[in-house]
Design a protein that fits this description.
The structure is a homodimer of 217-residue chains. Chain A has 217 residues and is mainly α. The first copy, chain A, has nine helices and two strands, in the order H-H-H-H-H-H-H-H-H-E-E. In chain A, strand 1 and strand 2 form a beta hairpin. Chain A binds a DNA duplex (30 and 30 nucleotides) through helix 1 and helix 3.
Chain lengths: 217, 217
DNA sequence: CAGTTTACTGAGCATCCGTTCAATGAAACG
DNA sequence: CGTTTCATTGAACGGATGCTCAGTAAACTG
């Protein structure tokens, strides 16, 4: 697991830090939060026991670094998905849904770690902040696109806030399925369910397969 | 916290067991799963250290008993809400929403405990079973009512499965808000959001305040 | 090529955790 | 009322955990 070519010192340093964070993710995902100890993490990373304290000062700070990395990776991923997509709100909303189930960010392992932190969020304020930021900005972006689709597409009586919240919550519940019962989870089925939801709200722009017509009247 | 009138032996026994479970809930909610130790729990319950092992054999079994009680309390609550409600599906669905935000089951403390168990679910199979059963039967019941409303109310093109999932997920995300940012949470606002969602799907039967007309054409 | 810096090791330490168990006293029983 | 049953206590134990620190070797520096 830990292959460390003898290169420059900073590269080794960064590599080791990353190995430790990855080992932490692996450990939390497979053993759980409570069973994740520094000994197991360092063994997984292939380094000695005391290294965590050297690099991260304390176990708690290693955990925070892990959560922050996960959070930033996720945010960066859907931000880039937005940049790559067409500029019309229909394509952008579809891109958000697609990116949320991409194997890069939507892994059973990562979802499990995310829920593990969420479970401890109540009692550790630092986690709460990161967890709140997680999808707060995400649902803001979704709501903007949903509002634009409603206005440009000529839909009346759409409750933007509710639609955005429901879509975000739907995605979340599908993630949870991946964690709790991965056998019944399917990436395509999950995306289809999101698009079926959107088809119910914007029938001229979406169907269960995704974008129907990004410029429909 | 532990007031034990000297009554019969079984009553004392049950009372102590309940005190321990309550103390476990309090501890998980305020200190988190990781920081919940038998010493803290027994101190909170006002009994001696070794009593947990006497009553529950092990810490793990105390945790399972706690989760099961929470789960059963919740299920019993919305089942009774269904019984007390009118028999038409519109009233029943409204009763489910109402009961889900009732102060008896929807407390910040209880939600926090629920998420704490969910966070450890991945690595402990027993939790997974309970967590899965939790809203599995709940969403089945919701889906039946939604289907009935669509058929009786003359709505076409309703995707029952998606509507039920989205509503369940919406409720879940509102619960999470209660845990993470209780200041911005409001019981009435949460119910209103659910009803706003239902108003979007069944505009002749719901508005943001709840049931509009349970017998609308 | 000395000398300095620094990532890294691993044994050691203080602490805490879950569990055990002999002792205790009050309810249950006949 | 004497005996049994059992909820309860609290000290004790083995083990694990997070963290410290003196020591080491390899990368940097000039």
């Amino acid at each position: 697991m830990a292959t460390k070519p003898a290169t420059t010192r900073v590269k080794r340093r960064d590599r080791t830090r990353q190995d430790l964070i990855n080992a932490t993710i692996d450990s939390i995902a497979s053993q759980g939060f409570a069973e994740t100890t520094l000994e197991k993490v360092s063994k997984r990373a292939g380094v000695s026991r005391g290294l965590v304290n050297f690099h991260f000062v304390s176990k708690e700070k290693l955990l925070i670094a892990t959560l922050e990395q996960l959070s930033e990776e996720y945010a960066a991923f859907w931000n880039r998905a937005l940049e790559k997509a067409d500029q019309d709100p229909v394509s952008q909303l579809a891109a958000l849904v697609e990116s949320d189930f991409h194997p890069r960010v939507c892994t059973r392992k990562k979802v499990a770690v995310w829920y593990a932190f969420l479970g401890e969020a109540r009692s550790r304020p630092t986690y709460t902040v990161v967890c709140n930021g997680w999808d707060r900005s995400f649902s803001t972006v979704m709501e903007e696109r949903i509002k634009a689709i409603a206005e440009l597409g000529g839909y009346t009586g759409i409750d933007y806030e509710v639609v955005a919240r429901a879509l975000g919550a739907l995605i979340d519940s599908l993630w949870r399925d991946l964690m709790l019962s991965p056998k019944s989870f399917s990436r395509e089925g999950s995306k289809a369910m999101c698009f079926r939801y959107l088809a119910g709200v914007f029938p001229r722009h979406f169907d269960s397969e995704g974008v129907l017509d990004s410029n429909a009247a």
